[in-house]
Amino acid sequence: MIRHRKDFLHAKRGTAAVEFALLLPVMLVVLFGSLEATGLIIANRGGEKAAAALADVSSRFTAMSGQDICDVMTGATAVSGAASRADLQLRLTSINIDSNAIARVEFSALQGSAFARQSQGTVITNDIPQNLRETSRSSPIMRAELRLTYRPTFVFLFAPSFTLRHVEYRRPRLVSQLPRTGTTSPCGA
C-alpha cells in the first residue's frame, strides 16, 4: 500500500492538463485585455487627431458659414474613426480675447448633445488656460472640444463604455476675428 502512495505522488500523467486548465483563464484575460487596451489606445489617438483637425482646419477660415461648420465637423468625424456618429460629440467655439485677457464667445457650434451651446458674448475667461489668455490678448482663438464614447468589444472584462475627452486650441491664421456668417446650417450645428 505504501508503494502505491509513492507512485501516486510521483505520477506525471495528467499534469499538463491540470496546468493548462489553471493557466487558460489567466491567458484569456491577458489576451482579451490586451486587445481592449489596444482598441482604447487607438480610439484615444483618433479622438486627439479629430480634435486637432477640427481646431486646425477651422482656424484657416476668414469667416465660417453653416456649411463650412458642417464640413469641418464631418471631416473630424471621419478622422476620429468613431464606430458611429452617435459616439462622437463635438463643440467648436470661436473665442475673442480682449486686451484685458477677458475671453468672450464669438460663436459656438455643436454636433451631438453632450455639450451646451454658448451664446455670443458669453464670458468664458475661466474656461481658457491662463497662459493661453495671456499670450492671446487682443486676438481670437478657436477651441475644439470632443467627447468620444468607446464601447469595448469584450464587455465582460471592462466597464460598459469609456468617455474620452480632448480639447484643442488654435489661433486663426488669416483674420483678427473669426465670425460666423448666417445662423443656420444643414447639419444643425
User: Strand count, sense and closure of the main sheet?
Assistant: 4 strands, antiparallel
Oligomeric state, counting identical vs distinct chains: single chain
Number of domains: 1
Q: What is the N-to-C order of secondary-structure elements (H for helix, E for strand)? A: HHEHEEHEEE
Q: How many H/I helices?
A: 4
Q: What is the number of E strands?
A: 6
How much helix is in the residues? Answer: 25-40%
Q: Round the Cα radius of gyration to an integer and report it.
A: 26 Å
* Shape designation: elongated
Q: Ranges with pLDDT <50 over ≥5 residues?
A: none
* Beta-strand content: 15-25%
Rounded mean pLDDT score: 85
* Cα separation of the termini: 85 Å
Q: Strand order, biggest sheet?
A: 3-2-4-5
Counting helices, strands and paired strands, the structural category is: alpha+beta
Q: What can you see in these coordinates?
A:
By secondary structure, this protein is an alpha+beta fold. The chain has one domain. 39% of the residues lie in helices and 23% in strands. The chain has four helices and six strands; from the N terminus they run H-H-E-H-E-E-H-E-E-E. The protein has helices spanning 2-10, 15-58, 66-80, 130-135, and strands spanning 64-65, 88-97, 103-111, 139-150, 162-170, 180-181. The strands form two sheets. The protein has a four-stranded antiparallel β-sheet, covered by helices on one side. A two-stranded parallel sheet has the order 1-6. Helix 2 runs antiparallel to helix 3 (66-80). The longest helix is centred in the N-terminal third of the chain and has 44 residues, at 15-58. The radius of gyration is 26 Å and the shape is elongated. 26% of the residues are buried. The mean pLDDT is 85.
